[in-house]
Amino acid sequence: MISSARVLYDTCSGPDEMAQRLNAVMHRSTDAGHFVTMFFGELDLTNGRLTYVNAGHNAPLLMSAGGWRELP
Fold first, then answer.
1. Model-level pTM greater than 0.70?
2. For residues 22 and 8, is the Cβ–Cβ distance under 8 A?
3. Which end of the chain is more exposed for a tag (fewer CB within 10 A), N or C?
4. CA 25, 10, 8 angle in degrees (round to 5)?
5. Which strand (E) or helix (H) includes residue 15?
6. What average pLDDT does the segment 33-55 reach?
């Protein structure tokens, strides 16, 4: 999956499209009964905005000087 993500990264408009395309790749190449979880995010360093997709993974945690919190 990592190599597929590297290939797709430059052609995707954001985490949502990346997740959709990776899901299609995994669906074609994975046997029934197997699954993959993923957290994929993109941090805009100019404004601090994090855009992400959580695909079946545990709730992501945001760490800061004030502690941590779960992301919705």
1. no
2. yes
3. C
4. 10
5. helix 15-29
6. 88
